[in-house]
Amino acid sequence: MAYYWFKAFHLVGIVCWFAGMFYLPRLFVYHAEANEQPEPARSILKSQYQIMEKRLYSIIMTPAMLLTVAMAIGLVTTEPDVLKQPWMHAKLACVVLLIGYHHYCKRLMKQLAADECKMTGQHFRWFNEFPTVFFIVVVMLAVFKNNLPTDLTVWGIVAMVISFAIAIQLYARKRRLAKERAAVESDGLLGNASS
Ligand code: HEM
To answer: Quick one: residue 42, left, alpha or beta (phi over 0 = left, psi -120 to 50 = alpha)?
Structure first.
């Protein structure tokens, strides 16, 4: 019975942890792009994003990561044999990378707060894809275990995820270019009006 309790709360932890890992880099995109705004909008937006990032990281992401790991420890203590399985070794390797990503987010938060971050909104859009890819891999490993399918279906799913990520990036680029063009045009109009 304990095993089911651990598994249930392992899943609850995962959902909350990944909600944060998907949303925090999105906030980084807005935070980095706030630098392009004129004052006082720039300072107001930056301090607001800083508060949102800090709360999301400390109140949701970190406790959820700890819950996921604590429940996982419960699972492997109840069924120690899973630790001998190759799928579990692959899963643990992915989890180490995800925990590294989680901590790297904290570093980026500090850099953004101190105005020392070199990454642009576009960099953060790519950075945002990392947890998505690992989320899919880890869930596939947890469900299929040692029978991870490698047939056409899998490659179809991989192609779909990659195309989706590329489409998001291209859409964001199109919107950014349209915004820049509109800004140049309105500058031109203002220049004509004043001359
Ligand atoms: C901290 C490292 C982790 C360990 C040691 C671990 C271990 C385990 C174990 C032993 C199970 C039960 C397997 C079964 O009963 O079939 C499980 C289930 C599961 N884990 Fe993890 N896990 C970890 C992290 C994660 C993460 C980060 C994710 C998601 C990205 C994840 C997704 C899942 C899913 C979806 C299940 C349910 C699988 C099923 O019932 O078929 N795990 N985990």
So the answer is: alpha
With vertex at residue 85, the alpha carbon angle to CA 81 and CA 87, rounded to the nearest 5 degrees, is 140
Number of separate helices (H) and strands (E) present in the chain:
7, 0
Q: Are 22 and 132 in contact (CB under 8 A)?
A: yes
Q: Is 76 in the pocket of ligand 1 (CB under 6 A)?
A: yes
Nearest atom of ligand 1 to the alpha carbon of 82: 10
State how far the Cα of 184 lies from the Cα of 179, in Å rounded to an integer: 9
- Nearest CA, atom 15, ligand 1: 7
pTM of the predicted model over 0.90: no
Q: Is the CB of 148 under 6 A from ligand 1?
A: no
ipTM of the complex: 0.91
Q: What amino acid occupies position 117?
A: C
Q: Whose CA is nearest to atom 20 of ligand 1?
A: 142
Which two tokens mark 98?
A: 């995800």
